[in-house]
Amino acid sequence: MAVTKEEQQQTEPAGHKELAHKSLLQSDALYQYILDTSVHPREHECQKQLREMTEKHPRNIMATPPDEGQLLSMLIKLMNAKNAMEIGVYTGYSLLSTALALPSDGKILAMDINREYYDLGLPIIEKAGVAHKIDFREGPALPVLDDLLKDENNKGSFDFIFVDADKDNYLNYHKRVIDLVRIGGLIGYDNTLWNGSVVAPPDAPLAGYIRRLRGHVLELNKYLAQDSRIEICQLPVGDGITLCRRII
Ligand code: SAM
Ligand code: CA
Fold it and tell me: Is Cell membrane set as a keyword in this record (predicted)?
């Protein structure tokens, strides 16, 4: 007997209703369950404020979701990281998560081409009492990395590096941060499942920016998978995060 479209919809798991969803999980309900049960009750009051402020911003699609912030925080604490770096700050949700997780004498070098975004979150970061850990640099990140590499003392000096900026530069970032992170340290590349588009057929109706940068994400994923200097683990948290532990 032929199955009607309605019957078919009823038997299929509920998919995401919003295109700009913050998780790749197949069901909104399951993601909401994780947020309600394990993430929101544990969120720092200032993280909550920063998240809610950012939700009203027109470019809020760029923000790190709170379950991913929780993952970053857990990793930083497990590693006893002290010296961190972030490329791509926006209003600062991942930065605040990192700064809260670092010890009081911890440091995070944070870079973004747009200081206006950072300034939106800064009063909340200050209120959280962690602004003293942050060294914010406005401008493109690549020249800052090149400058750091000129001083041998900076090589292998970072415990934790989170890369969440222009996807077409990720391989350029990798070439540099691999020498700045210590052996045993961690680099996290964000958005490596790129809205699920890494498996999209050629004729899939993708948003312009997703289509434009998809090739760069695919290239990065291939590169990381064969890079013998690191161990990797690609997690379907947020929009996909690939953790790279430097081994040589
Ligand atoms: N990690 C942020 C958070 O938790 O909300 C989200 C970062 S957002 C996805 C990407 C950021 O990268 C934007 O704020 C953008 O201004 C910044 N960006 C883009 N190109 C950059 C570059 N070449 N150097 C530094 N930052 C850049
Ligand atoms: Ca991101």
Answer: no
Q: Can you tell me which atom of ligand 1 is nearest the CA of 64?
A: 4
> Which of 60, 164, 173 should be mutated for ligand 1, with most atoms under 8 A from CB?
164
User: What's the CA gap between 122 and 140, in Å, rounded?
Assistant: 19
Phi, psi of 84 (to 5 degrees): -120, 165
Which tokens go with 117?
């975004």
166 C-beta closer than 6 A to ligand 1 = yes
At 4 the pLDDT is 39
Write down the ipTM of this complex: 1.00
Bridge partners, 87 (sequence order):
111, 163
**pLDDT score recorded for residue 150:** 98
Residue with CA nearest ligand 1 atom 14: 90
d(CA 108, CA 13): 41
CB 101 within 8 A of CB 70: no
CA 138, 136, 161, 82: dihedral to nearest 10 degrees?
170
What are the tens digits of pLDDT across the range 63-116? 999 999 999 999 999 999 999 999 999 999 999 999 999 999 999 999 999 999
Q: What is the pLDDT of residue 246?
A: 98
Backbone angles phi, psi at 244, to 5 degrees: -125, 120
User: Three-state SS for 74?
Assistant: helix
